[in-house]
Protein backbone atom coordinates (compact mmCIF):
# COMPACT_ATOMS: atom_id res chain seq x y z
CA UNK A 1 0.00 0.00 0.00
CA UNK A 2 1.33 3.46 -0.84
CA UNK A 3 0.83 6.57 1.19
CA UNK A 4 -1.47 9.06 -0.46
CA UNK A 5 0.19 12.35 0.33
CA UNK A 6 -2.80 14.61 -0.12
CA UNK A 7 -2.50 17.01 2.80
CA UNK A 8 -5.18 16.34 5.39
CA UNK A 9 -4.18 18.31 8.47
CA UNK A 10 -1.98 21.36 8.21
CA UNK A 11 -0.60 23.47 11.03
CA UNK A 12 0.60 26.82 9.70
CA UNK A 13 2.63 28.93 12.13
CA UNK A 14 0.50 27.44 14.88
CA UNK A 15 0.91 28.90 18.36
CA UNK A 16 -1.19 28.63 21.48
CA UNK A 17 -1.13 30.64 24.69
CA UNK A 18 -3.32 29.65 27.61
CA UNK A 19 -4.25 32.25 30.17
CA UNK A 20 -4.05 30.79 33.65
CA UNK A 21 -4.27 32.31 37.12
CA UNK A 22 -0.49 32.35 37.27
CA UNK A 23 -0.31 34.35 34.03
CA UNK A 24 -0.08 33.47 30.39
CA UNK A 25 1.35 30.12 29.47
CA UNK A 26 2.83 29.66 26.03
CA UNK A 27 2.23 26.00 25.27
CA UNK A 28 3.17 25.80 21.61
CA UNK A 29 4.82 28.19 19.22
CA UNK A 30 5.49 28.48 15.50
CA UNK A 31 4.55 24.95 14.54
CA UNK A 32 4.49 24.09 10.85
CA UNK A 33 3.43 20.58 10.11
CA UNK A 34 1.52 18.87 7.34
CA UNK A 35 0.00 15.45 7.79
CA UNK A 36 -1.00 13.45 4.74
CA UNK A 37 -4.07 11.32 4.29
CA UNK A 38 -3.45 7.81 5.59
CA UNK A 39 -0.29 8.77 7.44
CA UNK A 40 0.57 7.53 10.93
CA UNK A 41 2.38 10.33 12.71
CA UNK A 42 3.65 10.09 16.28
CA UNK A 43 4.41 13.14 18.41
CA UNK A 44 7.14 12.89 21.03
CA UNK A 45 8.72 15.38 23.37
CA UNK A 46 9.09 16.39 27.00
CA UNK A 47 5.97 16.80 29.14
CA UNK A 48 4.05 19.98 28.59
CA UNK A 49 5.55 20.70 25.19
CA UNK A 50 2.19 21.22 23.53
CA UNK A 51 1.66 17.84 21.90
CA UNK A 52 -1.83 17.48 23.34
CA UNK A 53 -2.51 21.11 22.47
CA UNK A 54 -1.92 20.23 18.84
CA UNK A 55 -4.43 17.39 19.05
CA UNK A 56 -7.02 19.56 20.78
CA UNK A 57 -6.64 22.23 18.14
CA UNK A 58 -7.03 19.67 15.35
CA UNK A 59 -10.25 18.51 17.04
CA UNK A 60 -11.43 22.12 17.18
CA UNK A 61 -11.78 22.22 20.97
CA UNK A 62 -10.18 25.68 20.92
CA UNK A 63 -8.91 28.07 18.24
CA UNK A 64 -5.17 28.70 17.84
CA UNK A 65 -3.76 31.92 19.29
CA UNK A 66 -1.52 32.37 16.27
CA UNK A 67 -1.48 30.83 12.84
CA UNK A 68 -3.94 28.38 11.40
CA UNK A 69 -5.09 24.80 11.64
CA UNK A 70 -6.45 23.48 8.36
CA UNK A 71 -8.37 20.30 7.80
CA UNK A 72 -8.71 19.36 4.15
CA UNK A 73 -7.61 22.88 3.35
CA UNK A 74 -10.30 24.57 5.45
CA UNK A 75 -9.67 26.22 8.83
CA UNK A 76 -10.98 24.11 11.73
CA UNK A 77 -13.83 26.04 13.35
CA UNK A 78 -15.68 24.37 16.19
CA UNK A 79 -15.89 20.64 16.78
CA UNK A 80 -14.25 18.77 13.93
CA UNK A 81 -16.57 15.88 13.22
CA UNK A 82 -14.04 14.13 10.98
CA UNK A 83 -11.81 13.20 13.90
CA UNK A 84 -12.10 10.70 16.70
CA UNK A 85 -10.38 11.35 20.00
CA UNK A 86 -8.93 8.82 22.41
CA UNK A 87 -7.05 9.82 25.54
CA UNK A 88 -5.27 8.11 28.37
CA UNK A 89 -8.48 7.98 30.33
CA UNK A 90 -10.93 6.12 28.18
CA UNK A 91 -13.96 8.36 28.81
CA UNK A 92 -16.48 5.56 28.49
CA UNK A 93 -19.97 6.31 29.77
CA UNK A 94 -20.09 4.60 33.18
CA UNK A 95 -23.85 4.06 32.96
CA UNK A 96 -23.65 2.04 29.76
CA UNK A 97 -22.30 -1.46 29.29
CA UNK A 98 -19.75 -2.31 26.61
CA UNK A 99 -22.40 -2.73 23.90
CA UNK A 100 -24.13 0.48 24.95
CA UNK A 101 -20.89 2.43 24.86
CA UNK A 102 -19.87 1.23 21.43
CA UNK A 103 -23.39 2.00 20.19
CA UNK A 104 -23.28 5.67 21.22
CA UNK A 105 -21.81 7.07 17.98
CA UNK A 106 -24.10 4.87 15.91
CA UNK A 107 -27.15 6.13 17.79
CA UNK A 108 -25.98 9.67 17.16
CA UNK A 109 -25.75 8.88 13.47
CA UNK A 110 -29.35 7.77 13.66
CA UNK A 111 -28.75 4.15 12.63
CA UNK A 112 -31.51 1.59 13.07
CA UNK A 113 -31.55 -0.77 16.04
CA UNK A 114 -30.84 -3.92 14.06
CA UNK A 115 -28.01 -2.26 12.14
CA UNK A 116 -26.47 -1.00 15.37
CA UNK A 117 -26.62 -4.45 16.95
CA UNK A 118 -24.87 -6.01 13.95
CA UNK A 119 -22.18 -3.38 13.73
CA UNK A 120 -21.51 -3.46 17.48
CA UNK A 121 -21.17 -7.22 17.60
CA UNK A 122 -18.69 -7.02 14.72
CA UNK A 123 -16.64 -4.46 16.62
CA UNK A 124 -16.81 -6.40 19.88
CA UNK A 125 -15.30 -9.37 18.09
CA UNK A 126 -12.73 -7.19 16.37
CA UNK A 127 -11.31 -5.84 19.64
CA UNK A 128 -11.67 -9.18 21.40
CA UNK A 129 -14.30 -8.28 23.97
CA UNK A 130 -16.62 -11.20 23.28
CA UNK A 131 -18.24 -12.37 26.49
CA UNK A 132 -18.04 -8.92 28.07
CA UNK A 133 -20.84 -7.29 26.10
CA UNK A 134 -22.97 -6.74 29.19
CA UNK A 135 -20.18 -5.55 31.49
CA UNK A 136 -20.10 -1.99 32.78
CA UNK A 137 -16.81 -0.07 32.51
CA UNK A 138 -16.20 -0.41 36.25
CA UNK A 139 -16.24 -4.19 35.86
CA UNK A 140 -13.58 -4.17 33.14
CA UNK A 141 -9.81 -4.12 33.44
CA UNK A 142 -7.86 -1.13 32.14
CA UNK A 143 -6.92 -2.94 28.94
CA UNK A 144 -10.50 -3.99 28.25
CA UNK A 145 -11.69 -0.44 28.76
CA UNK A 146 -9.10 0.73 26.24
CA UNK A 147 -10.32 -1.84 23.77
CA UNK A 148 -13.92 -0.79 24.31
CA UNK A 149 -12.92 2.83 23.73
CA UNK A 150 -11.06 1.80 20.56
CA UNK A 151 -14.13 -0.08 19.33
CA UNK A 152 -16.27 3.00 19.99
CA UNK A 153 -13.76 5.12 18.09
CA UNK A 154 -13.90 2.74 15.13
CA UNK A 155 -17.69 2.56 15.32
CA UNK A 156 -18.11 6.09 14.10
CA UNK A 157 -15.40 5.61 11.57
CA UNK A 158 -13.72 9.03 11.60
CA UNK A 159 -11.12 9.71 8.91
CA UNK A 160 -8.60 10.78 11.49
CA UNK A 161 -7.77 9.32 14.87
CA UNK A 162 -6.30 11.65 17.47
CA UNK A 163 -4.71 9.54 20.17
CA UNK A 164 -3.19 11.02 23.30
CA UNK A 165 -1.11 8.35 25.02
CA UNK A 166 -3.96 5.91 24.63
CA UNK A 167 -1.91 2.94 25.80
CA UNK A 168 0.03 4.82 28.48
CA UNK A 169 -1.07 2.92 31.55
CA UNK A 170 -1.04 -0.58 30.11
CA UNK A 171 1.41 -3.41 30.65
CA UNK A 172 3.90 -4.21 27.92
CA UNK A 173 2.17 -7.26 26.46
CA UNK A 174 -1.24 -5.68 26.31
CA UNK A 175 0.25 -2.57 24.78
CA UNK A 176 2.00 -4.54 22.08
CA UNK A 177 -1.23 -6.38 21.30
CA UNK A 178 -3.16 -3.15 20.94
CA UNK A 179 -0.38 -1.51 18.95
CA UNK A 180 -0.43 -4.37 16.45
CA UNK A 181 -4.21 -4.15 16.20
CA UNK A 182 -4.18 -0.40 15.77
CA UNK A 183 -1.46 -0.36 13.14
CA UNK A 184 -3.17 -3.14 11.18
CA UNK A 185 -6.61 -1.52 11.37
CA UNK A 186 -5.38 1.89 10.34
CA UNK A 187 -3.56 0.50 7.38
CA UNK A 188 -6.54 -1.56 6.28
CA UNK A 189 -9.04 1.27 6.67
CA UNK A 190 -6.60 3.96 5.47
CA UNK A 191 -6.95 6.04 8.66
CA UNK A 192 -4.82 9.05 9.40
CA UNK A 193 -3.43 9.00 12.91
CA UNK A 194 -1.89 11.64 15.15
CA UNK A 195 -0.50 9.75 18.10
CA UNK A 196 1.04 11.39 21.17
CA UNK A 197 3.36 9.20 23.20
CA UNK A 198 6.12 9.33 25.79
CA UNK A 199 7.38 5.94 24.78
CA UNK A 200 10.25 6.22 22.31
CA UNK A 201 9.89 2.63 21.11
CA UNK A 202 6.21 3.18 20.46
CA UNK A 203 6.97 6.43 18.67
CA UNK A 204 9.12 4.62 16.11
CA UNK A 205 7.34 1.27 15.96
CA UNK A 206 3.97 2.70 14.99
CA UNK A 207 4.95 5.69 12.91
CA UNK A 208 5.42 6.57 9.30
CA UNK A 209 6.88 9.78 10.65
CA UNK A 210 7.85 10.75 14.19
CA UNK A 211 7.73 14.43 15.11
CA UNK A 212 10.09 15.48 17.89
CA UNK A 213 9.20 18.55 19.95
CA UNK A 214 11.35 20.93 21.96
CA UNK A 215 10.66 21.90 25.55
CA UNK A 216 7.87 24.38 26.27
CA UNK A 217 6.95 26.49 24.43
CA UNK A 218 6.99 23.49 22.16
CA UNK A 219 7.92 23.65 18.53
CA UNK A 220 8.98 21.07 15.99
CA UNK A 221 12.62 20.14 16.54
CA UNK A 222 12.98 17.35 13.98
CA UNK A 223 10.84 15.09 11.90
CA UNK A 224 12.11 11.54 11.55
CA UNK A 225 10.89 9.59 8.57
CA UNK A 226 10.49 6.02 9.68
CA UNK A 227 11.55 4.10 6.60
CA UNK A 228 10.42 0.72 7.90
CA UNK A 229 8.02 -1.30 5.73
CA UNK A 230 4.39 -0.21 6.05
CA UNK A 231 3.20 -3.70 6.90
CA UNK A 232 5.96 -4.17 9.46
CA UNK A 233 5.87 -6.96 11.98
CA UNK A 234 5.79 -5.26 15.36
CA UNK A 235 6.76 -8.51 17.08
CA UNK A 236 10.05 -8.74 15.23
CA UNK A 237 11.01 -5.05 15.31
CA UNK A 238 13.27 -5.42 18.33
CA UNK A 239 15.78 -7.24 16.14
CA UNK A 240 15.49 -4.90 13.17
CA UNK A 241 18.69 -2.93 12.52
CA UNK A 242 16.97 0.10 11.05
CA UNK A 243 14.52 0.19 13.96
CA UNK A 244 17.39 0.20 16.43
CA UNK A 245 19.12 3.04 14.56
CA UNK A 246 15.94 5.09 14.53
CA UNK A 247 15.17 4.64 18.24
CA UNK A 248 18.79 5.51 19.02
CA UNK A 249 18.48 8.65 16.91
CA UNK A 250 15.27 9.59 18.67
CA UNK A 251 16.92 9.00 22.00
CA UNK A 252 19.79 11.31 21.10
CA UNK A 253 17.34 13.99 20.04
CA UNK A 254 15.48 13.87 23.33
CA UNK A 255 18.39 13.30 25.68
CA UNK A 256 19.47 16.98 25.77
CA UNK A 257 16.08 18.08 27.04
CA UNK A 258 16.15 15.32 29.62
CA UNK A 259 19.55 16.57 30.73
CA UNK A 260 18.12 20.05 31.02
CA UNK A 261 15.35 18.79 33.26
CA UNK A 262 17.91 16.98 35.40
CA UNK A 263 19.83 20.21 35.78
CA UNK A 264 16.65 22.00 36.81
CA UNK A 265 15.88 19.35 39.41
CA UNK A 266 19.38 19.57 40.83
CA UNK A 267 19.28 23.36 40.92
CA UNK A 268 16.03 23.25 42.87
CA UNK B 1 -26.16 -12.39 61.33
CA UNK B 2 -24.40 -11.52 64.57
CA UNK B 3 -25.13 -7.86 63.96
CA UNK B 4 -28.81 -8.69 63.74
CA UNK B 5 -28.68 -10.63 66.97
CA UNK B 6 -27.03 -7.72 68.77
CA UNK B 7 -29.57 -5.32 67.30
CA UNK B 8 -32.40 -7.54 68.47
CA UNK B 9 -30.97 -7.81 71.97
CA UNK B 10 -30.57 -4.03 72.14
CA UNK B 11 -34.14 -3.42 71.04
CA UNK B 12 -35.55 -6.09 73.34
CA UNK B 13 -33.71 -4.80 76.38
CA UNK B 14 -34.80 -1.24 75.62
CA UNK B 15 -38.44 -2.31 75.37
CA UNK B 16 -38.14 -4.44 78.52
CA UNK B 17 -36.61 -1.51 80.43
CA UNK B 18 -39.40 0.73 79.18
CA UNK B 19 -42.08 -1.79 80.20
CA UNK B 20 -40.57 -2.34 83.67
CA UNK B 21 -39.88 1.29 84.56
CA UNK B 22 -43.32 2.39 83.41
CA UNK B 23 -45.53 2.69 86.48
CA UNK B 24 -42.66 2.12 88.83
CA UNK B 25 -40.04 4.80 88.08
CA UNK B 26 -42.08 6.96 85.71
CA UNK B 27 -45.78 7.62 85.53
CA UNK B 28 -47.46 5.76 82.63
CA UNK B 29 -49.24 9.03 81.83
CA UNK B 30 -45.96 10.37 80.44
CA UNK B 31 -44.24 7.37 78.93
CA UNK B 32 -47.05 4.85 78.52
CA UNK B 33 -45.63 1.34 78.00
CA UNK B 34 -44.76 -0.82 75.00
CA UNK B 35 -47.64 -3.18 75.68
CA UNK B 36 -50.16 -0.33 75.90
CA UNK B 37 -48.76 1.20 72.68
CA UNK B 38 -49.01 -2.12 70.91
CA UNK B 39 -52.59 -2.64 72.09
CA UNK B 40 -53.63 0.82 70.85
CA UNK B 41 -51.79 0.22 67.57
CA UNK B 42 -53.53 -3.11 67.12
CA UNK B 43 -56.92 -1.58 67.89
CA UNK B 44 -56.35 1.00 65.16
CA UNK B 45 -55.32 -1.73 62.75
CA UNK B 46 -58.45 -3.76 63.54
CA UNK B 47 -60.82 -0.82 63.26
CA UNK B 48 -59.18 0.23 59.98
CA UNK B 49 -58.55 3.66 61.50
CA UNK B 50 -54.80 3.32 60.98
CA UNK B 51 -55.03 2.45 57.29
CA UNK B 52 -57.47 5.24 56.61
CA UNK B 53 -55.27 7.89 58.18
CA UNK B 54 -52.03 6.37 56.94
CA UNK B 55 -53.54 6.25 53.46
CA UNK B 56 -54.22 9.98 53.55
CA UNK B 57 -50.68 10.74 54.71
CA UNK B 58 -49.26 8.43 52.05
CA UNK B 59 -51.21 10.22 49.33
CA UNK B 60 -50.02 13.61 50.59
CA UNK B 61 -46.41 12.57 51.05
CA UNK B 62 -46.23 10.64 47.82
CA UNK B 63 -47.94 13.20 45.59
CA UNK B 64 -45.92 16.02 47.14
CA UNK B 65 -42.76 13.96 46.77
CA UNK B 66 -43.47 13.21 43.11
CA UNK B 67 -44.46 16.79 42.21
CA UNK B 68 -41.62 18.41 44.13
CA UNK B 69 -39.15 15.83 42.82
CA UNK B 70 -40.15 16.29 39.18
CA UNK B 71 -40.20 20.07 39.42
CA UNK B 72 -36.84 20.03 41.22
CA UNK B 73 -35.31 17.79 38.59
CA UNK B 74 -36.61 19.93 35.74
CA UNK B 75 -35.42 23.16 37.33
CA UNK B 76 -32.04 21.60 38.16
CA UNK B 77 -31.54 20.44 34.59
CA UNK B 78 -32.50 23.81 33.07
CA UNK B 79 -30.47 25.95 35.46
CA UNK B 80 -27.56 23.49 35.45
CA UNK B 81 -27.19 24.02 31.73
CA UNK B 82 -27.58 27.77 31.63
CA UNK B 83 -24.90 29.58 33.55
CA UNK B 84 -26.41 33.03 32.97
CA UNK B 85 -29.86 32.05 34.17
CA UNK B 86 -28.37 30.36 37.24
CA UNK B 87 -26.30 33.47 38.00
CA UNK B 88 -29.33 35.73 37.75
CA UNK B 89 -31.54 33.54 39.90
CA UNK B 90 -28.90 32.55 42.45
CA UNK B 91 -29.78 35.09 45.20
CA UNK B 92 -33.50 34.36 44.91
CA UNK B 93 -32.90 30.64 45.10
CA UNK B 94 -30.74 31.10 48.17
CA UNK B 95 -33.43 33.22 49.86
CA UNK B 96 -36.08 30.58 49.32
CA UNK B 97 -33.64 27.84 50.23
CA UNK B 98 -32.75 29.43 53.58
CA UNK B 99 -36.41 29.92 54.41
CA UNK B 100 -37.71 27.00 56.49
CA UNK B 101 -40.43 25.79 54.14
CA UNK B 102 -42.55 24.70 57.10
CA UNK B 103 -42.94 28.38 57.98
CA UNK B 104 -44.90 28.75 54.76
CA UNK B 105 -47.63 26.45 56.11
CA UNK B 106 -49.86 29.23 57.48
CA UNK B 107 -49.66 31.04 54.13
CA UNK B 108 -50.56 27.86 52.29
CA UNK B 109 -53.55 27.42 54.61
CA UNK B 110 -54.72 30.87 53.53
CA UNK B 111 -54.18 30.11 49.87
CA UNK B 112 -55.20 26.50 49.55
CA UNK B 113 -57.40 25.88 52.59
CA UNK B 114 -57.04 23.10 55.09
CA UNK B 115 -57.65 20.26 52.64
CA UNK B 116 -55.26 17.75 51.23
CA UNK B 117 -53.88 20.15 48.54
CA UNK B 118 -52.24 22.32 51.14
CA UNK B 119 -50.25 19.38 52.54
CA UNK B 120 -49.27 18.26 49.08
CA UNK B 121 -48.00 21.72 48.19
CA UNK B 122 -46.16 22.06 51.48
CA UNK B 123 -44.49 18.69 50.95
CA UNK B 124 -43.67 19.51 47.34
CA UNK B 125 -42.02 22.81 48.27
CA UNK B 126 -39.83 21.05 50.83
CA UNK B 127 -38.83 18.26 48.44
CA UNK B 128 -38.37 20.62 45.50
CA UNK B 129 -35.31 22.35 46.92
CA UNK B 130 -33.52 19.21 48.00
CA UNK B 131 -33.95 17.57 44.61
CA UNK B 132 -33.33 20.81 42.73
CA UNK B 133 -30.02 21.56 44.45
CA UNK B 134 -28.78 18.01 44.01
CA UNK B 135 -29.78 17.85 40.36
CA UNK B 136 -28.23 21.24 39.73
CA UNK B 137 -24.94 20.13 41.26
CA UNK B 138 -25.14 16.91 39.25
CA UNK B 139 -25.65 18.69 35.95
CA UNK B 140 -22.82 21.09 36.82
CA UNK B 141 -20.47 18.23 37.57
CA UNK B 142 -20.94 16.46 34.27
CA UNK B 143 -17.55 15.69 32.81
CA UNK B 144 -16.84 18.23 30.09
CA UNK B 145 -14.49 15.74 28.47
CA UNK B 146 -17.35 13.30 27.98
CA UNK B 147 -19.42 16.02 26.36
CA UNK B 148 -16.53 17.05 24.09
CA UNK B 149 -16.01 13.45 23.01
CA UNK B 150 -19.68 13.08 22.12
CA UNK B 151 -19.64 16.43 20.32
CA UNK B 152 -16.80 15.19 18.14
CA UNK B 153 -19.03 12.26 17.21
CA UNK B 154 -21.48 14.84 15.92
CA UNK B 155 -23.86 14.81 18.89
CA UNK B 156 -26.61 17.43 18.96
CA UNK B 157 -27.73 19.26 22.11
CA UNK B 158 -30.46 16.67 22.55
CA UNK B 159 -27.96 13.81 22.30
CA UNK B 160 -25.70 15.44 24.86
CA UNK B 161 -28.67 15.93 27.19
CA UNK B 162 -30.08 12.41 26.92
CA UNK B 163 -26.84 10.47 26.67
CA UNK B 164 -24.56 12.36 29.05
CA UNK B 165 -26.17 15.03 31.18
CA UNK B 166 -29.30 13.19 32.32
CA UNK B 167 -27.71 9.82 33.08
CA UNK B 168 -24.81 11.38 34.93
CA UNK B 169 -27.19 13.56 36.94
CA UNK B 170 -29.31 10.55 37.88
CA UNK B 171 -27.15 9.51 40.80
CA UNK B 172 -27.35 13.05 42.18
CA UNK B 173 -31.08 13.12 41.67
CA UNK B 174 -31.38 9.98 43.73
CA UNK B 175 -29.18 11.40 46.44
CA UNK B 176 -31.72 14.24 46.58
CA UNK B 177 -34.68 11.88 46.54
CA UNK B 178 -33.29 9.72 49.34
CA UNK B 179 -32.64 12.82 51.39
CA UNK B 180 -36.17 13.99 50.69
CA UNK B 181 -38.06 10.99 52.07
CA UNK B 182 -38.04 12.11 55.71
CA UNK B 183 -38.68 15.70 54.64
CA UNK B 184 -41.67 14.68 52.57
CA UNK B 185 -43.11 13.14 55.71
CA UNK B 186 -42.29 16.24 57.72
CA UNK B 187 -44.17 18.34 55.19
CA UNK B 188 -47.23 16.11 55.21
CA UNK B 189 -47.36 15.64 58.96
CA UNK B 190 -46.69 19.22 59.93
CA UNK B 191 -49.44 20.19 57.53
CA UNK B 192 -51.77 17.80 59.29
CA UNK B 193 -50.71 18.98 62.73
CA UNK B 194 -51.56 22.56 61.82
CA UNK B 195 -54.97 21.96 60.37
CA UNK B 196 -56.57 18.65 59.47
CA UNK B 197 -59.15 16.09 60.41
CA UNK B 198 -57.44 13.16 58.76
CA UNK B 199 -53.95 11.72 58.35
CA UNK B 200 -51.32 10.38 60.74
CA UNK B 201 -50.49 13.88 61.92
CA UNK B 202 -54.12 14.36 62.88
CA UNK B 203 -54.11 11.00 64.66
CA UNK B 204 -51.05 12.14 66.58
CA UNK B 205 -52.54 15.52 67.51
CA UNK B 206 -55.86 13.92 68.38
CA UNK B 207 -54.28 11.34 70.73
CA UNK B 208 -52.19 14.04 72.35
CA UNK B 209 -55.26 16.23 72.79
CA UNK B 210 -56.96 13.46 74.69
CA UNK B 211 -53.88 12.86 76.85
CA UNK B 212 -53.68 9.40 75.27
CA UNK B 213 -49.93 8.84 75.52
CA UNK B 214 -50.14 5.30 74.17
CA UNK B 215 -51.96 6.71 71.16
CA UNK B 216 -49.22 9.29 70.59
CA UNK B 217 -46.59 6.58 70.58
CA UNK B 218 -48.71 4.36 68.34
CA UNK B 219 -49.04 7.22 65.84
CA UNK B 220 -45.27 7.77 65.96
CA UNK B 221 -44.74 4.07 65.34
CA UNK B 222 -47.01 4.27 62.29
CA UNK B 223 -45.05 7.27 60.97
CA UNK B 224 -41.75 5.42 61.39
CA UNK B 225 -43.13 2.40 59.55
CA UNK B 226 -44.34 4.63 56.74
CA UNK B 227 -40.89 6.24 56.44
CA UNK B 228 -39.31 2.78 56.20
CA UNK B 229 -41.71 1.79 53.42
CA UNK B 230 -41.02 5.00 51.46
CA UNK B 231 -37.26 4.53 51.84
CA UNK B 232 -37.58 1.00 50.60
CA UNK B 233 -39.39 2.15 47.46
CA UNK B 234 -36.77 4.76 46.67
CA UNK B 235 -34.08 2.09 47.02
CA UNK B 236 -35.91 -0.29 44.68
CA UNK B 237 -36.40 2.50 42.14
CA UNK B 238 -32.75 3.41 42.41
CA UNK B 239 -31.67 -0.15 41.62
CA UNK B 240 -34.01 -0.29 38.64
CA UNK B 241 -32.90 3.01 37.19
CA UNK B 242 -29.17 2.72 37.91
CA UNK B 243 -28.04 -0.89 37.44
CA UNK B 244 -24.44 0.24 37.01
CA UNK B 245 -24.36 1.76 40.45
CA UNK B 246 -24.98 -1.42 42.33
CA UNK B 247 -22.02 -3.02 40.62
CA UNK B 248 -19.88 -0.17 41.74
CA UNK B 249 -20.69 -0.99 45.33
CA UNK B 250 -20.11 -4.70 44.85
CA UNK B 251 -16.89 -4.48 42.89
CA UNK B 252 -13.63 -5.11 44.60
CA UNK B 253 -12.04 -2.08 46.04
CA UNK B 254 -8.71 -0.87 44.72
CA UNK B 255 -6.91 2.43 44.44
Q: Could you name the key traits of this structure?
A:
heterodimer; A: 268 residues; alpha/beta; Rossmann fold; 6-stranded mixed sheet; 7 helices; 38% helix; 25% strand; B: 255 residues; mainly alpha; MetI-like fold; 12 helices
In short:
Chain A has 268 residues and is an alpha/beta fold. Chain A has seven helices and ten strands. In chain A, helix 5 (172-189) links the parallel strand 7 (160-164) and strand 8.
Number of strands of chain B: 0
Helix tally of chain B? 12
Radius of gyration of chain A, rounded?
Answer: 19 Å
Shape of chain A: globular
| CATH topology term of chain B | MetI-like fold
Distance between the termini of chain B: 30 Å
Based on the structure given, which CATH architecture of chain B is correct?
Orthogonal Bundle
Order of helices and strands of chain A: EEEHEEEHHHEHEHEEH
Oligomer: heterodimer
Mean pLDDT of chain A: 85
User: Low-confidence segments of chain A, ≥5 residues, pLDDT <50?
Assistant: none
Major beta sheet, strand line-up of chain A:
6-7-8-3-9-10
Mind summarizing the main beta sheet of chain A? 6 strands, mixed
Determine the structural class of chain B based on helices, strands and strand pairing.
mainly alpha
* Superfamily (CATH H level) name of chain B: MetI-like
Determine the most extensive contact between two protein chains. A-B, 26 and 24 residues
Mean pLDDT level of chain B: 87
Plain-language structure description:
- The complex is a heterodimer of chains A (268) and B (255).
- With 268 residues, chain A is α/β, with parallel strands linked by helices.
- Chain A has a domain at 7-82 and 158-267: 3-Layer(aba) Sandwich (Rossmann fold), CATH 3.40.50.300.
- Helices cover 38% and strands 25% of the residues of chain A.
- Chain A has helices spanning 51-59, 98-109, 113-126, 142-155, 172-189, 200-206, 241-267, and strands at 7-20, 23-36, 40-44, 66-71, 74-75, 83-86, 160-164, 192-196, 209-213, 220-225.
- The radius of gyration of chain A is 19 Å and the shape is globular.
- The mean pLDDT of chain A is 85.
- The two termini of chain B are 30 Å apart.
- Chain B contains twelve helices and no strands.
- Chain B is elongated and about 75 Å long.
- Chain B has a single domain (32-239), classed as Orthogonal Bundle (MetI-like fold), CATH 1.10.3720.10.
- Chain B has 255 residues and is mainly alpha-helical.
- In chain B, 84% of the residues lie in helices and 0% in strands.
- Chains A and B meet through strand 6 and helix 2 of A and helix 8, helix 9 and helix 12 of B.
